[in-house]
Amino acid sequence: MVTLRNLVLIGAGSTEGIQIPVGQSGAVHIIDCLVSGFGSGGIVSGAPQTDVDHCIVIDHTNSVAIGVDFAAGKARVTNSLIANNNVGLEAADGSSVVVTNSSISGNVIGAETRLFSIASADLALDRCTISGNGTGVLAGTMAGGTAAVRLSSNLISYNTTGVQADAGTTIFSYGNNNISGNSFDLAAGTTLSPVMQR
Question: Which domains does the chain show, CATH number per domain?
Answer without folding.
Answer: 2-194 (2.160.20)
